[in-house]
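Notes from the 1:1 (GR / supervisor)

We went over the backlog. Supervisor wanted to see one worked example end to end before approving the batch request, so GR pasted a single chain during the call. The sequence is below; no edits were made to it. Supervisor asked that the structure be written out right there so they could see what the output format looks like.
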Amino acid sequence: MPAINPTELLALWKAQVRTWALSGQLLTAAVHALQLKASRPPEQLSELIDEIAGGAMETLPPVELLEAGAMPGAAGAYAASTGTIYLNRDWLRTASESKALAVLTEEFGHHLDAVINAADTPGDEGTSFENLLIK
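Structure output shown during the call:
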């Protein structure tokens, strides 16, 4: 299996996130995973999703590749302190495209939690978010 091209992967992921934003799936998944009130989602979340739906991909967190030693045993991570999603470069060399997209989506769920909620949502909101969007 050839290694995934990170630039192509990010373009594919951003297109998928925009599709979810346009269809309403992104809002539904975020409300559920972040344990928000469906009747009144935070305005910040609605605005962010509207921006993504409109093609403002700079709204998404930056993604950086790190060597395996910087994140041993992890395929991906999100750091609220930097607002950045990190992918394990070594893991990415052998990962399937679908798994790489799933990891990006999970970490995006953690990003949304950090941006929208004052406190961390109980449980693993990233995994819940990913599971709601990637079936």
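Supervisor's comment: The first strand starts at residue 63 and ends at 66.
Batch request approved.
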